[in-house]
Specification:
This protein is α/β, with parallel strands linked by helices and about 200 residues long. About 40% of the residues lie in helices and about 25% in strands. It has 9 helices and 9 strands. The strands form 3 sheets. A 4-stranded mixed beta sheet has the order 8-7-6-9, with no helix packed on it. Strands 1-2-3 form a 3-stranded mixed beta sheet, with helices on one face. It has a two-stranded antiparallel ribbon with strand order 4-5. A hairpin with a 2-residue loop joins strand 1 and strand 2. Helix 1 (about 1-15) packs antiparallel against helix 3 (about 25-45) and helix 7 crosses helix 8. The protein starts with a helix and ends with a helix.
Amino acid sequence: MNHITNFWNYFQQNNFVFLFLNEISKDEIKTHFDKLIEKLHQYNKDLDLIIKNKTNEAELIITANGNPYLFKEVELLVHHAPVIERWKIIAFLQPETNLTKFENGTDKPLEYYGITLRISEMYFIPLENPNKPTDLGIKVLLKNYIVHKDNPRLREAVYVHIEHLIGEKAFANDIAFIEIGQLEGDYENLIKMYKLTSFITI
């Protein structure tokens, strides 16, 4: 319990640094961010955090990086979060609700260890496991799979994108397995990646 208290005390005392990230020097931000991560890792070394800044308010997201064994830890930490003005404290990455940017192809590419992917350029096809018919798998199809197929971080990069799209809990609970392949010419039987959330909830 001490580690939870220490984490929230540090965040509460320094929340303005994280609220006004754009107005503070990179070195100062790094110092505070490293310290905050250190406090989080004293509680659980496998958890992570994401800070999203908006005008006059911000979100602190505590994430288990999609590991369902750590969900309880995340929930416990967020349960003890103090109320801090202008902050929204959230357990887990939430599903993306604004899909317009993906539909229009105006989404920003996400870069991950030198791998650049855009949700709007990704497709998938559902896969079935004959031994477990209730398990949903997907094959993710990428334009530049051939370029990155030998990169050991490719699978991780794809997972991070899907997790940001459909939310951490759906990623862990609703998708049993993922394959990755090259996007070929015929798109007719393919489903655009941004439609994955509605596909899962059918």
